[in-house]
Amino acid sequence: MIDDTDKKIIKVLSENGRISMKQLGEEVHLTGQAASTRVLKLEEAGIIEGYSVKVNEQRVGLPVHAFINIYTKSLQHQHYFQVLDIYKPYVRNNFKISGEGCYLLECRFPSNEELDSFLVDLSKQVSYKLSIVVSQTKS
User: Fold this and answer.
1) Residue 8 resides in a domain
2) What share of residues in the chain are helix, strand, coil (percent, to 5)?
3) Which CDD domains does the annotation name (predicted)?
């Protein structure tokens, strides 16, 4: 079970995973050593699973952001997964979902032409409904 201090630690690390333990301790009113000990316990408990880098995908050449509801045509999904493997550099997430569709696919593409090529290959295996991200709102 995590307490309020652990929640604060998680929040601070989520905003800046590169913060020093001394700075983290100051943010959550602990010593650097106490903050480090808590972080280690959160990691060992599997609550903190790792640290990552946030990449601006538009600046690395992937401005087209798409969400695609996938409707499989059969109970065999291997061919769908083969298409995903071919376009793996563009696939960000593939969620198995309930409700509308079987999967929700999140992708980033360098151009509409590359997206179209993906959709042509995809449509040979599944039906889909495409949504293009116009902008992202701040939460």
Assistant:
1) yes
2) 40, 20, 40
3) HTH_ARSR (cd00090)
